[in-house]
């Protein structure tokens, strides 16, 4: 046995390389074959998209759970603990079972190394293998699988899902799957499979033909948001003879709901209208428009690219009866920093910070005009505490720009609350 604790597993995973020299699926396929191809033994649903894939995955898994089905969920990134990445029926994989499946994956790798001495997995491949093995061993009825990056070459793309979902297509991770939006669309279309339905959200008109061509090639029936199913700003949803009313949310969140519900309905699983509405309204998505305080309102959202930030700020600026919006933000230095900051309203009070993470922008990474315009706090905890304490009843504080910052603030708040109890 190589691993004894969950900490051992996680430390080992993050010491592994992140990319192979060649970008294909041969490594993950080989280890899954050695494990008995667990990915083929559970019905799956595959979700990709520039934004919204995590939210859509959570909504869809909660619908399946509500229908009484044992449902696995594989998502990234995690917010509070690594175990969030692999869940069954909303419960994170326990530490002892994380250790168990990791040791089984390691044993499979050791067997392969008997004939291929240099065989190894990258971090994400190891995580994917653990997830599929866990879902199979726990006899899941379904597993909702969120793509890591892209689609066609993503390490999760070893399944023949019951349905595929493409939430949105925009510019992100251009260096890996770009550089153009057409390249990104082509990559994401790779999850469309032979004669399996594909449900798509807001796809830009210049790349819609790429998705349509791939669906036609695979004889996969295409269901488009706004054409085949609809949802309005008030949460009114319609698909074929189905009609539901959901609680109003940010427009982009409504779109994710519509994608999840449409996919669920295509599976022909028996669930009453009221239970469908209940499943959606009960779904809590960590770090995605997560409200942790009311009056004053404190919102955490990991929006980390131009498309996500634009959707978030548009909704926030339409909010009625607020006095001020204060925004605490850090951003990864490889993102389009100027484009993101160009979305803020003149009335927004924006404060910059950073976190102890190698990709996070420090003061010197922000453009001069951004540093000249906004206050910068080296310590995110100090920044958050000062802003929180300065809020009036009708103010809104938004923490955004990175899931890493959202995670750090949630942990800080949890520690603060626990210390106050004692």
UniProtKB/TrEMBL annotation:
Protein's name according to its UniProt entry: tetrahydrofolate synthase
SUPFAM superfamilies from the UniProt entry: MurD-like peptide ligases, catalytic domain, MurD-like peptide ligases, peptide-binding domain
Catalytic activity line of the entry: (6S)-5,6,7,8-tetrahydrofolyl-(gamma-L-Glu)(n) + L-glutamate + ATP = (6S)-5,6,7,8-tetrahydrofolyl-(gamma-L-Glu)(n+1) + ADP + phosphate + H(+)
Domain Mur ligase central residue range list: 47-257
Domain Mur ligase C-terminal: 287-403
PANTHER family: DIHYDROFOLATE SYNTHETASE-RELATED, FOLYLPOLYGLUTAMATE SYNTHASE-RELATED
Cofactor(s) named in the record: Mg(2+)
UniProt cross-references to Gene3D superfamilies, sorted A to Z: Mur ligase, C-terminal domain (3.90.190.20), Mur-like, catalytic domain (3.40.1190.10)
One Gene Ontology cellular component annotation held by this UniProt entry: cytoplasm
Top-level lineage group: Bacteria
EC number: 6.3.2.17
GO molecular function: ATP binding; dihydrofolate synthase activity; metal ion binding; tetrahydrofolylpolyglutamate synthase activity
InterPro entries from the UniProt entry: Folylpolyglutamate_synth, Folylpolyglutamate_synth_CS, Mur-like_cat_sf, Mur_ligase_C, Mur_ligase_C_dom_sf, Mur_ligase_cen
Record carries keyword Transmembrane helix: no
Keywords: ATP-binding, Ligase, Magnesium, Metal-binding, Nucleotide-binding
Sequence similarity: Belongs to the folylpolyglutamate synthase family.
């Amino acid at each position: 046995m190589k691993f004894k604790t969950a900490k051992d597993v996680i430390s080992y995973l993050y010491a592994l390389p992140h990319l192979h020299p060649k970008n294909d699926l041969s490594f993950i396929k080989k280890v899954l074959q050695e494990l008995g191809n667990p990915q083929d033994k559970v019905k799956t649903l595959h979700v990709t998209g520039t934004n919204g894939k995590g939210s859509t995955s959570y909504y869809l898994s909660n619908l399946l759970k509500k229908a009484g089905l044992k449902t696995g969920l594989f998502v990234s990134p995690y917010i509070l603990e690594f175990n969030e990445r692999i869940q069954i029926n909303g419960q994170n994989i326990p530490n002892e079972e994380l250790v168990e499946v990791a040791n089984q994956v390691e044993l499979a790798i050791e067997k392969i190394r008997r004939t291929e001495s240099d065989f190894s997995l990258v971090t994400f491949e190891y995580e994917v293998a653990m997830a599929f093995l866990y879902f199979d061993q726990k006899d899941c009825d379904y597993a909702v699988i969120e793509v890591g990056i892209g689609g066609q070459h993503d390490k999760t793309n070893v399944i023949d899902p019951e349905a595929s979902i493409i939430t949105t297509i925009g510019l992100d991770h251009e260096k890996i799957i770009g550089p153009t939006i057409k390249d990104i669309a082509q990559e994401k279309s790779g999850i469309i499979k032979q004669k399996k339905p594909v449900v798509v959200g807001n796809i830009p008109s210049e790349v819609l033909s790429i998705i349509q061509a791939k669906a036609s090639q695979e004889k996969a029936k295409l269901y488009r948001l706004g054409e085949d199913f609809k949802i309005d700003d008030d949460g009114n949803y319609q698909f074929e003879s189905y009609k539901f009313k959901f609680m109003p949310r940010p427009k982009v969140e409504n779109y994710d709901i519509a994608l999840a519900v449409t996919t669920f309905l295509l599976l022909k699983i028996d669930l009453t209208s009221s239970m469908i509405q209940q499943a959606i309204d009960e779904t809590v998505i960590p770090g995605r428009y997560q409200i942790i305080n009311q009056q004053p309102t404190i919102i955490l959202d990991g929006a980390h690219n131009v498309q996500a930030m634009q959707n978030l700020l548009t909704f926030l600026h339409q909010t009625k009866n607020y006095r001020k919006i204060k925004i605490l933000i850090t951003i990864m230095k490889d993102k389009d920093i100027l484009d993101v900051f160009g979305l803020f309203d003149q009335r927004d009070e924006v404060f910059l910070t950073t976190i102890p993470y190698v990709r996070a922008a420090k003061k010197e990474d922000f453009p001069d005009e951004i540093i000249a315009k906004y206050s910068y706090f080296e310590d995110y905890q100090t920044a958050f505490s000062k802003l929180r304490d300065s809020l009036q009843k009708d103010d809104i504080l938004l923490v955004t720009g990175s899931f890493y910052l959202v995670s750090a603030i949630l942990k800080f708040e949890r520690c603060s609350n626990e210390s106050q109890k004692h």
